[in-house]
Design brief:
Number of strands: 19
Number of domains: 2
Order of helices and strands: HEEEEEEEEEEEEEEEEEEEH
Structural class: alpha+beta
Oligomer: single chain
Strand content: 35-45%
Number of helices: 2
Distance between the termini: 25 Å
Length: 254
């Protein structure tokens, strides 16, 4: 009976953490460039818990354990905006931005130009090029971002292109070691070294949307809620049986 309570409790703990992951995915369904998180589970055989089966043999009790969460880096759907400062990345690359905590990486491509002429993210962080921050002049217009990340403009009345920089694109051999931070940024975890990416391409005038599937995530949330409720009911039944057994034992004459 105690094993049933322990197994049920372990499952509830896993479901609670899984609900946190699903809830965070749902909260970011409309966040540009957001990558969903997924949960990994494994069987855990306790060496201290055993049960007797009908064959009379003894076996270890199997618990469920959430091993970890991982990032789903699959490509999200793209949406055409026709905004020349919006960019979507075709491939596994990330944009590099400068933050007070150091370089960070993002897939969020709705870029802007701040009042100092610097190319920044929607959160105001500088977007880095291969030669550092990218800065525009007040007379620049007709911004063009090539598939390889080169940024050119027309300056004033000139009909000749002027180069303002080239977007720095990086990828990671061990992308699962990236750590999520706020503002849709990733920090380099232990062993996650940025490598120059020459295979990915930039699509100007497009935005990569979140790769969260709203229908799937809502279905998961309903499934988790139902499972949690069923286990709670089972645990209550086991508790009632335990209580009833104790009461009957107390009524047995000495």
């Amino acid at each position: 009976m105690q094993n049933t309570l322990l197994v049920g409790l372990s499952k509830q703990m896993v479901l609670e953490r899984q609900m946190d992951v699903v809830s965070n995915n749902i909260a970011n369904m409309t966040t540009n460039g957001y990558k969903a998180d997924r949960s990994l589970f494994q069987e855990y055989l306790s060496s201290n818990a055993h049960e007797d089966n009908f064959a009379g043999s003894d076996r270890r009790v199997s618990f469920v354990q959430d091993r970890a969460t991982f990032h789903d880096f699959s490509q999200g759907p793209t949406e055409e905006t026709k905004n020349p400062l919006d960019v979507a990345i075709d491939g596994n690359a990330f944009l590099v931005v400068q933050t007070p905590a150091g370089e960070r990486y993002t897939r969020e491509g709705n870029l802007q130009i701040n009042n100092r002429g610097q190319l920044v993210t929607a959160s105001g962080y500088q977007v880095l090029g291969t030669s550092g921050p990218i800065t525009f002049q007040q007379t620049d217009h007709d911004v063009n971002i090539a598939p390889d990340g080169n940024i050119s403009v027309l300056e004033g009345t000139s009909r000749l292109d002027s180069i303002r920089g080239k977007l720095r694109l990086v990828s990671f051999a061990q992308a699962q070691r990236l750590l999520k931070e706020g503002s849709n940024l990733y920090a380099p975890g232990e062993g996650a070294q940025p490598l120059p990416d020459t295979k990915s391409q930039i699509r100007q005038g497009f935005i990569e949307k979140s790769n969260v599937n709203s229908v799937v995530e809502m279905s998961r949330m309903i499934e988790i809620t139902r499972t949690y409720t069923q286990i709670a009911s089972l645990l209550q039944q086991q508790s009632d049986l335990h209580k009833s057994a104790i009461e009957k034992l107390a009524d047995v004459p000495n």
